[in-house]
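Record type: monomer structure entry
Structure origin: computed from sequence
Chain ID: A
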Amino acid sequence: MKRHPSKDIVGTKSESLKGKHVVLCITGSVAAVRSADIARELMREAAEVYVVMSEYAQKIIHPNLMEWATGNPVVTELTGKIEHVALVGEHADKADLVLIAPATANTISKIAAGIDDTPVTSVASTALGSMTPLLIVPAMHKSMYKNPFVRESIQKLKANNITFVGPIVEDGKAKIASVMEIVEAVIRRISEANDFQGKHFLITAGPTIEYIDEVRIITNKSSGKMGLAIAEEAQMRNAKVTLVYGLGSEDPPSDLKVLHVETTEEMEQAVLRELEETEYDVVVAAAAVSDWTLKKRYKGKVPTEEISTLKLELKPTPKIVDEIKDASQKSLLVIFKAEYNVSKSKLVKNAHKRLRKAKADLVVANDVSKRGIGFRTKTNEVYIIDKEKKTVHVPLSSKRTVARKILDIVKLKLK
């Protein structure tokens, strides 16, 4: 019998998932209308896709659509064929990954509670028992996503090596992640599932501030997005992550160990305390630390009505990156070096000089004078330089992509 015509697209984009079997589980969220696109993109990456649908998913899209999309029969109920075990039971032919997209609050909470009363939750339960990787893509109203019991369920699942993608929180909804983000997450989860298993990462992110008086500060333009992207990427690749976080513009993932700080001194103390108490395999110093602090901080609030000119006498803050190797010689140290409007050769030269001074293993350098690079942007362009001055250029990309490239090099250095 000729194979299903819908499978003609398999591998037309790449062979990233060649030989891999993905079980796509669909639950009763309106975002189920995106599931066919997800399946088709996975197939273009050469995956074989099998679909399992809950009863309420079938009220939103018809199983025939998913059979057309994948070229495979769709599981809508469990029968004497014990479909959940056939797909992800403990046997040599089990699937490589279970993807639940979209996942409702109901399904997420059931999986966390060990309940398997639908085809989807039974597949998830079986996958967990057979150690099959599970990737969940939430989609629901924002108020449901903020429900403390739903958040507790998500944290419980993440703590048990279950990967979440998204959601995108906007317009009062926790919307399903983009198709490409989901597909990229599937590729990474299958290929990089245990990259940093058992490894401890200490990551600094965000700006530090220095007080002028009780209400006024000096700081820099950092948003903390680059450091957060590295923390999220490391966590997705199974690292145990501690984040020392300044006053960034975004909230860190709720399931990370986060040490909130404000000033450079507080960040210094937090980093050195962590290095003293815990053995970290990798330290990534991505924070934009204030270089100057006041010699003498004003008390209270300086009254502008009484003072026409305010003179500030500044002194350098501690260079935290210069203290890390002394505190933890075995840690692989990654530092960042920002320049403004310099040539590529000078950027690399200055970055390598900074690497040597800090006794670092890698330095990530960028020129923040250029549009879309560095502070308060979603993108970055960097040069990653090692001790031997070997340089890897990452062209303008999302900060998550840059984070992935950095950690790819970290992975090689840890071998």
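Annotation 1: The radius of gyration is 24 Å.
Annotation 2: Residues 399-414 form the longest helix (16 residues).
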